[in-house]
Every structure is written in structure tokens, then in C-alpha cells.
Design a protein that fits this description.
The chain has one domain (8-55). Helices cover 65% and strands 0% of the residues. It is built from three helices and no strands. Helix 1 (8-24) crosses helix 3 (39-55). The longest helix is centred in the first third of the chain and has 17 residues, at 8-24. It is globular and about 30 Å long. The protein starts with 7 loop residues before the first helix and ends in a 7-residue tail after the last helix.
Length: 62
């Protein structure tokens, strides 16, 4: 099993994207980037964000 090291900034970005998506029901990539999340962080963490949202029962609008 591979362990991925996640930086504190990535953790913050993942949590913020999940929280705001749950709050609003869905968010586009542009809306997530408007939260201050960098395009690189979004690309790097897209799977973690989507998994967190799916775990909450809400579809991620990609």
C-alpha cells in the first residue's frame, strides 16, 4: 500500500473545497479556484476532494 504525504496547505484546500461544495450543493472548478485554491492544488487533490464529497453523499460537479 502506498502512503501519500499531504502538506498542511493541501489538507486546508481539500477541507475548504469539500466544505464549500457541501454548503452550496455543487461547485465548478472555477468556483473552487475562486476560493483561493491554486490550479495545481486542485489538480493534485481532485481525487481526495471528490472522495470526500462522495462520502457525504453529494455528487462533485467537475
Amino acid at each position: 500500500m502506498k502512503t501519500k504525504i499531504v502538506s498542511a496547505e493541501d489538507k486546508r484546500d481539500i477541507k475548504l473545497a469539500i466544505d464549500k461544495t457541501l454548503e452550496f450543493g455543487s461547485m465548478s472548478d472555477e468556483q473552487i479556484l475562486d476560493l483561493g485554491i491554486s490550479p495545481e492544488s486542485l489538480a493534485r487533490n481532485r481525487n481526495a476532494i471528490a472522495a470526500g464529497i462522495r462520502a457525504s453523499g453529494i455528487q462533485f460537479a467537475a
